[in-house]
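Much of what follows relies on a compact textual record of a protein's fold. Here is one such record, which you should read through line by line:
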Amino acid sequence: MLTNRFKNYPYLNEIAPINSIPEASKRAVPQLLFRGSEDGLIKDEEVKAYERALSKAGQRVEYIQVGGANHAFFDWKPDTKTQATFNKYGKYHAHEMLLFFDSVLEGLNKTEN
């Protein structure tokens, strides 16, 4: 369920990812979730609820809240402000993302061999 800010748009619950999480035994969908602590669009409790739902379905999930970052800190555009935000927050966490992907892909390679 989405927060009350979407109560006038009930159809959003139909397409919300939290409402279509498969059981990991049927389809594993490892997820790495990032949220800037200053994000005014996506609330911490919404991400935590999604994280709990993923865990309940047996899915692998990691949630990282990035202190001081706002929404879309991974964006990369040619303007100075966006580049500065990416350099401040995105570069470090892009490395964490790479490590997560490597661990997921390594696990896939082990099951295929």
In short: The radius of gyration is 16 Å.
